[in-house]
Amino acid sequence: MAAGKIDFNPSTQRKVHEEQAEREFFLGNFEPPFIERVLKEKWKTLRVGKTAYDEHAAPYPRVMQQSLRPLPVFIERNEALVDHYKLLHG
After folding, report:
1. CA distance 42 to 38
2. 13 domain-assigned
3. Contacts of 69 (CB under 8 A, 6+ apart)
């Protein structure tokens, strides 16, 4: 996983998370209730990973993992691109 600033543009993002598959886009780390209530409604290809990493490519501190339980979320790059272009071009 690359440490530092993460590119959230689906047309230019490369692999930024160890669990990210070749044709996936990393959405970010989210709490399970948010994933269930919001993200699963919006993204058809959503996949939830196991280990959330911070911006320095280190696992979140244990205390944060126990309280917030952040999980990495991925979607297929094509789905992210369609949404991205809808935002740009209406």
Report:
1. 7
2. no
3. 31, 32
CA-CA-CA-CA torsion for 33, 37, 40, 46, nearest 10 degrees?
-20
44-81 pLDDT tens trace: 999 999 999 887 888 887 777 677 789 999 999 999 99
Residue span of the structural domain in which 84 resides = 24-89
Rounded to an integer, what distance in angstroms lies between the CA atom of residue 39 and that of residue 71? 12
Radius of gyration in angstroms for the set of CA atoms belonging to the chain, rounded to a whole number: 13
Q: Which two tokens stand for residue 61?
A: 């501190």
Q: Look up the pTM and report it.
A: 0.86
